[in-house]
Sequence to fold (96 residues):
Amino acid sequence: MIAAQIAAVQTSAANDFPASYTTWRKFRDAQEAATGSSEIASNITEVATSADASAHLPGQMGDSVSELAGLSGPVQFGAPRPIGTADRYRTRGATT
Fold:
């Protein structure tokens, strides 16, 4: 009688193992899928944040260019002459 009970428990355990393993495997697969979905959502958020920051960049660059243009307005281009050299370039005997 004890041997029959042991055999029944072994048979029951052997029959239940594939079902419990399959259930565990499905749970694990669902868990991995949820983790993957979370990572994808995080990546999409990062891309959207970067795109938003990039959208403001042309305006900021335009402001900087305008500011530089304003600063460079009074600047004269070319090599500056030392003070007092204008007389050297006059023709002798010319009247001013």
User: Anything to note?
Assistant: Residues 2-72 form the longest helix (71 residues). The mean pLDDT is 76. Helices lie at 2-72. Residues 69 and 85 are 30 Å apart (CA to CA).
